[in-house]
Design brief:
320 residues, Rossmann fold, 2 domains
């Protein structure tokens, strides 16, 4: 091929040169753009589609009982987080009660995501305490906190694109099993795997994505990918769900579907703490709002109170 191009291209262009290098470069770029998953992805499209594997009807995984509506679920007491000389969260206190959706808002850099990371154990508090379901969780690792019934999603979609939707959702349920990686590697966890698959299918039906169960996660539009992440979090059987900007990048109808889902989950007794910048989406959904600014708690109250708070209007909503 190279020898042919070395002879053909100079004759075609009427001048000498190593034009084959340019051709190979163009082919390389085209391959990287068109076959991002490798050659096998292209070959796989040409092969007959495999039948979808059967999904068990029911799961026997242990399930939690949701706490009584209005019960104190999460208590943040004078929490502080310092990164060297930067104070990202400055002595913030707030409470989350069972059965409510609490919104956490503030300008970029206000410390909202840092607060989420302190609650779920990704970061350690410099000072203060966090209690969840009457247990002190500040200082615990993320997987320990998750075992107590706290799940979260992130600002950016974190799905494994070349795995199916149900396989992605199954990842959330393995925390409820007791088989380790050695059992999984030796294929001794088939019973637990069957239960996890049944639980994942149950949660996909719960969020309205049953028909996409065996589609590749990367092939779904962004709105459905975010709902897949919610289903994966629900697979861990949480009593508190943390959502970090779940409506980011969604179209209007996708936001409406997400709001409908979250309202439905609240109706089932699930508690939600949500960070969001879309005020129209948030204010029509939440029960209460906490506002942060420069790492401090600026205000707290009902959505209508926050809408008319002069400090919030000045700091976050653009002034009166």
């Amino acid at each position: 091929m190279r020898s042919y191009l070395q002879g053909a291209l100079p004759a075609l262009l009427g001048r000498a040169g190593n034009f084959e290098v340019i051709v190979f470069g163009i082919l390389m770029i085209a391959s990287l753009q068109g076959l991002r998953g490798g050659i096998w992805v292209f070959i796989e499209r040409l092969l007959p589609r495999k039948k979808d594997p059967p999904v068990p009807e029911s799961s026997n995984l242990p399930a939690r009982t949701q706490p009584a509506h209005g019960e104190l679920l999460l208590k943040v007491e004078s929490v502080r987080k310092e990164f060297g000389g930067l104070v990202a969260v400055n002595d913030v206190s707030c409470e989350v009660f069972a059965g409510e959706i609490l919104g956490l808002i503030g300008p970029n850099g206000a410390g909202k995501t840092t607060m989420f990371n302190l609650i779920d154990g990704e970061l350690r508090c410099t000072a203060g305490n966090i209690s969840f379901a009457s247990r002190k969780i500040s200082g615990l690792t993320p997987h320990q906190i998750a075992r107590h019934g706290l799940s979260r999603t992130f600002q950016h979609v974190k799905l494994i694109a070349n795995m199916t939707v149900i396989e992605n959702v199954m990842l959330g349920a393995y925390l409820r099993t007791h088989d380790g990686f050695l059992a999984a590697g030796a294929r001794l966890n088939r019973r637990a795997d069957t239960q996890v698959r049944a639980e994942a299918a149950k949660q996909l039906r719960r969020v309205g994505l049953a028909e996409n169960m065996f589609a590749l996660a990367g092939s779904l539009p962004l709105g459905k990918q975010r709902i897949v992440e919610v289903a994966r979090a629900l697979c861990a059987d949480p009593i508190l769900l943390l959502l970090d900007e779940p409506a980011a990048g969604l179209r209007y109808l996708e936001k409406q579907e997400l709001a409908k889902l979250l309202s439905s989950l609240r109706g089932e007794g699930l508690t939600v703490l949500i960070v969001e910048h879309d005020m129209e989406f948030l204010m029509n959904l939440v029960d209460r709002v906490v506002v942060m600014d420069f790492g401090k708690k600026l205000a707290e109250g009902l959505p209508q109170e926050i809408r008319s708070n002069p400090e919030v209007l000045e700091a976050y909503l653009g002034g009166v």
